[in-house]
Amino acid sequence: MVVVWIALVLSGAVVVAATIDTTSKGIRLFRASRRLSALTGTELARIEAATGEIERHLADAERSSEALQASVARLSRSRAQLNVLLEAIAEVRTAIQRVTAYLPAK
C-alpha cells in the first residue's frame, strides 16, 4: 500500500513539474512572439515606406518617359522639316549655279 502512495505522490509531482515547465515555455513563447511582432511591425513600416518611395520614383520615371517620347516626336518632325528645307536650298543653289554659269566672271 505504501508503494501505491509513493507512486501517487511521484505522479502528482511529475504533473506539477510538467505544468510548471509548460507554463514557463508558454510565457517565453508569448514574450518571443511580442518581440517578433514589434520587430516585424517596424520592418514592415520601413518596407512600406520604401515601397511608397519606389512607386513615386516609378511614376516620375513614367512622366519623364512620356515627356521624352513627346520630345523625340517633335525632334523627328523638326528633322523632317529641316530635310525638306535643305533639299529646297540645294535645288535653289543648283538653279543659281546654272544661271551663273552663263554670266561672265569678273
Q: Can you describe what's shown?
A:
This protein is mainly alpha-helical and 106 residues long. It is built from one helix and no strands. The longest helix is centred in the middle third of the chain and has 99 residues, at 2-100. It is rod-shaped, with a radius of gyration of 44 Å.
Summarize the structure.
The chain is mainly α and 106 residues long. The protein has 1 helix and no strands.
What's the topology here?
Elements: H1 2-100
The structural class is: mainly alpha
Principal-axis shape: rod-shaped
- Mean pLDDT equals 93
Major sheet details: none
**Oligomer description:** single chain
> What ranges have pLDDT less than 50 throughout 5 or more consecutive residues?
none
**Gyration radius, rounded:** 44 Å
Roughly what fraction of the amino acids lie in strands? under 5%
Helix coverage percent: over 70%
- List SSEs in N-to-C order: H
- Discrete helix count: 1
Number of strands: 0
Distance between the termini: 148 Å
